[in-house]
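sorry for the late reply, my laptop died twice this morning and i had to redo everyting from scratch. anyway the thing you sent over, i finally got around to it. pasting the sequence first so we're on the same page, its 641 residues, then the predicted structure underneath. double check i copied it right bc i was rushing
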Amino acid sequence: MTKYYLTTPIYYVNAAPHIGTAYSTFVADLVKRFKKMEGFDPVVLTTGSDEHSRNVEKAAKAADLSPDEYCTRMVTEFTGLWKKLGIDYDRFIRTSDPKHHETVRWLFERCQSNGYIYKGGYTGQYCVNDELYINDAKPGDPCPECGRPTETVTEENYFFKLSAFQRRLLDLYESDPEFVKPDHRRNEIIAFVQQGLNDLSITRTNIKWGIPAPAENHHVFYVWFDALISYMSAVKDDNLWPADLHLIGKDILRFHAVYWPAFLMAADLPLPKKVFAHGWILFEENKMSKSRGNVVRPGPIVDVTGVDALRYFLLREITFGQDGSFSYDALIQRYNADLANGLGNLASRTLSMIQQYRGGVIPQSDGLGEIAEVARGTTEIVLDAFNQFNFSKGLEIVWAFITVIDKFIVERAPWKLAKDQDHHTQKLLDETLYTAAESLRIICGWIYPVMPASAQNIWEQLGMPEPMANIKVADLHWGKLAGGQKVGKVLGVFPRLDAAPAIAKMQELEISEKSRQAALFATIPAAIVPADSKISIDDFAKVEMRVGQVLSAERVKGADKLLHLKVDIGEPEPRTLVAGIAEAYTPEQLIGRKVVIVANLQPRKLRGIESNGMIVAASVEGGKPVLAGFLEDIPIGARLK
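ok and here's the structure:
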C-alpha cells in the first residue's frame, strides 16, 4: 500500500472561517476521498490553526481575552464548521501545541548546525497586516501586498540564509515541473527567485505570543518559520512525511514554494511533492476580506441549500487554480438546473420506475452496450481530470453523462414499454431500467468525492450493500450492479428552490451569523478618528496635483492589488505609476480615463517598478477605492488648487 499525505493551509486565526477557507478545505476533502478510491492507504488529511502573531495578540486584547483563550475560541469555530460541512480530516494541528514547538526548535537547530542560521540586526519596513518584511522600502511606503503603510522596526533577529538557496530552488523548479502548480504560478515563482533572494528574519523580539527560540527565550519565532513547520509537526512520528500535496491560496504561494523548501533543504529533510495554489473567490467581482466587509460565511448557505450544493457549486463553477466568482443568484440557478432538474430528477425517475415496473427489484440484464461504452469513456476522462486537479471539467463530463441517460430514457419511453407484455418488449424494459440504474450507480461513484452525503443517499436508495467510503475506481466498471438486488425507498435528494425566498433567507442568516461572531470575539466596527492637527495653507500648497489621462494599464505580475499605469500629465514623457486599485478597476476600464495625480512625490519602487506619483482615490473601511474625476472637460496637465 502507498500512503498519501495532504494538507490544507494552516488557517490564520485573526478571522473566523469564510467561504474561501471552506473552498480550500472542500478541495482537500475531495482529494482525500478520491485518493482512497484510487487505492492509496493510508490517506491522511491535516488542517490546523496558525496562532502566533502580533495581529493575534492585538485581536485577543481587543476581545479582552488571553491569546490562548482567543485562539481556542477561534479553533472551535473552525472545527465546528468543518464538522457541519462534512470535512473528513484526520489531524488538526495548532501552532500552540507543545508537539509543534518541539518540531520547530528541532528544525531550527538542524538548520543552525548546517550553517544556515545567524544572528544579526534588522532595521527596515514591516507590514503588520501581512506579517511581512518589505525590502527596498522607505519609512511610510505602502506594503506591496495590501497597500497599508509600513512600520519601521529595529530589532535583533535570527536570520535564515535564504540567499544561499537561489540556485537550488531554480534547479528544483526546472527538474520537477510538478512541484508548483498550476504552471502560471510556477512561472511567477521562477521569476521571483531569479530576481535574487535576501536573507530572511525568522525571529522577533518585540512580541511574547509565540514559540521561544532555543537558548534565547526573548527571541520568538516569526510566523512563517513557525507555521510552515506545522505540516511536519502533525505527522512527525507517523512515517508520513514528505507531504504529497500542499493545497494553498495563491496569496501564500511564495512562502510555500520558496521559503518552505529552502528551510527543508537547509535541514537536509525531504521536500513536499507538490504545492498547488488556487485562486480567490470573488464576491460581486471583489476579493472577500474582513477589511472590505464583504465576507460570505458558508454556514448560512448550507442551512438553506445543504452542504453538497455548496460543494458542487464551488467545484463545478470555478476552474481550480483560477479566480472564481460567487453569488447567491448563480448558486440557486446551478442548484436547480444541475442538481434538482439533473441528478435529482434522474435518480428519482430511475428508482421510481424500478419500483413501479419491477416491484423494486433490479432486473437481470447486461444493459445497453452503447451506454456501457459511454460510461467507460466517462470514467476514463473523469479519472484523468481529477488527477489533474481539473475538478470542474470532471464534473462537466459527469453531467454530460447524466444528459445522455436522460435522453436514453426519453427515447426508450419505459412507461410505454411497460404497457406491452410481449416478451421482447419486456426484455427491452429490463435492459432500459438496468442501464439507467447502472449508470446512476457509476455516477454516484464519481460524485462521491464532491458530494459525499448526497451520493451515499442515492447509493442506499439503489440498495447497494457496501458503504461508499469503501468503493474503489475499479468498482465503477460497467456491470457491477447485481440483478435481483432490491432498491430502497425513493426519497427526493434535491428539492427545487424558489430563488427569491431562498436568497433572502441566506442573507438573513448571514447577518445573524456575522452578529454572533462579532459578539463572540467582541469585535466592533472601527470608529473614524478625527485628525489631531491641521495643516497650513502653505503646507497644502506644497502638494502638486494635476489632471492626467491614463494611456496604458496592466496588472503587476505577482501582485493582485497593483496596476502599472502610464499617465499623460502634460509633460514630454508620460509618468509611470504603480497604483493599488486592481481590485476595483480592470486595466480596460482605466485606459483613456482622466484622473488626479499627485505629481511631486519622491519616486518609490514597488515590485521592481519605479512609481513617479500617486493616483488620488477615495476609500472607506470595507469599501473599494473610487477614483477622483471630473464632471466637466478639463485639459490634461491642469493643476488642482
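The CA atoms of residues 179 and 274 lie 4 Å apart.
thats about all i looked at so far, will dig more tmrw
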